[in-house]
Amino acid sequence: MKNIFQPDVTSEVINRINKLTPATNQLWGKMNVSQMLAHCNVNYEMVYDNTHPKPKFFMKLLMKAFIKNLVVGEKPYKKNLHTAPSFLIADEREFEKEKTRLIDYLNKTQQLGEVHFDGKESLSFGKLNKTQWNNMFYKHLDHHLSQFGV
Prior knowledge:
Blueprint: H1 7-18, H2 33-48, H3 57-66, H4 68-72, H5 95-117, E1 121-122, E2 126-127, H6 130-147
Antiparallel strand pairs: 1-2
Helix pairs in contact: 1-5, 2-5, 5-6
């Protein structure tokens, strides 16, 4: 899997994001392009913005047991997977705002680097190593950018 902490990979992902327009249609799924960008921002909001509540003990235990490996593992996501409630974006979003936010989050993540993330606590999965953080960030973005053909 590509390493989102590397400047060339971050640049590649940002170039893919910059190919999107408000009129870009999805190849599968229900979200429009603005909703998808907002959906991708949720990962970073959970890291940087403290706007999402921590799951309660039992829910966190279930997530660590049943969902963690799917999210942080090497295996790509399948199309049309069920989306966690905190990642659902049902309302309309402003394309340029969500695009700018995502690019800013990517740049911040790359600048902080993998050392910053190695052993960092995830909101839902507990401590993750740098590879798990990378897999979670890169795999999710790659999945959704592919969903929109970029």
